[in-house]
Write the structure tokens for this entry.
Amino acid sequence: MTKKFFINISVILAFIFSLPLLQNCSEQPETPSKNETPNETRIQKFSLGLIPEQDLFSQKERYEPLARYISEKVGLNVEIKILSRYGNIIDNFVSGQLNGAFFGSFTGALAIKKLGVIPLARPVWLDGTSTYYGMIFVRKDSGIKNANDMRGKRFAFVDKATTAGWLLPLEFFHVTGIEDFNNWFAETYFAGTHEDAIYDVLNKKADIGAAKNTVFYRLAEKDSRLTDDLQILVTSPKVPSNTLAVSNKLDKSITKKLKNTLLQMEQDKQGQEILKKFKAIKFIETTVEDYAPVFEYSNTVSLDLRKYNYMNE
């Protein structure tokens, strides 16, 4: 029994004397990799949101080469996330699933007011424009010329988080004295994309539609029926084209690299090739002040962007 007691004591003492050694080992700093420096903040993945401006395949075809270019130049693994509806960009930022996004003008204004996102840059298209405007349109054979002619007709919006496909019609109703559009029209609905709203009117599913001019004329290049059969009744002020904006929680050095990468794309051959595929000339700086027309439209229809419920009904 005495022998057993001494054996147990020896085991305990050996364990106690080994503790400092174990502690020292656990406190040794990790050896940085060849590509890292101590205290360097690195993001392995950068989730980039895209609004459903066009169909899934068209969006991927346009943005994937740009995402690869940014990944290479900035040192991030940029992953595209194409969202099912416009307001999902706000939801995904709130839940922490996105680091940045190419916002439309209304979703950009919403994100600035609700989340404090930082706009960085937007493309200048091949025609030299960096803005777009909203349009309300009908079929030429519809006989619709004004708000009174719209009574009892069907109106196709895009989404409650778009300037062209929602805010413009609201402002139009306000100016023309349509106080309750739900009772003014026989039917109103959200088409989901600008493309769908356009084709719903073209194909007589709806009598009136609202969408952005850039999508309209991009489609018209391949389908002349849009300009042959549709008539534009109302247009909105110009607003910023889809702009890359990032979370205000993103590391400032990464934010700066992203912005500089976009603004300097046209200066290197690889960047020029990517811009060509993106159908743009270059990127230009975008600021909060560029969203002034959206803020003014919102004020006109008494819409508080900080509290606005952008979910479609």
Q: What stands out?
A: The chain has two domains: 45-130+240-300, 134-236. Confidence is low (pLDDT under 50) at residues 1-41.
